[in-house]
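name: query_chain
kind: protein
chains: 1
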Amino acid sequence: MTRKIYIIRSVFLEKETLGNLFVVEGTKILFKCKTLELPYRDNQRNISCAPSGVYPIKFEYSPAFDEFLWELKNVQGRSEIKIHVANFFDQLRGCIAVGDQHIYINNDQFKDVRNSRNTLKRLHAALEGMEDTTIHIFGSPEKE
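structure:
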């Protein structure tokens, strides 16, 4: 059975989008964490989260980050949408940050994600041995 990634977005604010990520195999949840993304701004490069939908995702080397990361593919008009380490929305340019908790870290009145690097390592471990799969993203405000 193939492991798949699901993101369910639940909080849509002017500067960020918060959600939950799950790695699922069949009906079993193998891993879960919190996500942090930019708000939806018409899928514009560098300032918007990706639209909801189902996308191929590949584990490949990123020269920009100098490490292997999961990258969404076939997002219309977009490229280089990675799942990577970040704690704050202003560290994102359309990518997805993961952490173990939504929490206020830097006192800007927007929640951040905690323990991003360790959470990313755990995500990679949950998908170990895979080079590609699909990511299902639910809850984008562009459909509301």
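note: The chain has a mean pLDDT of 95.
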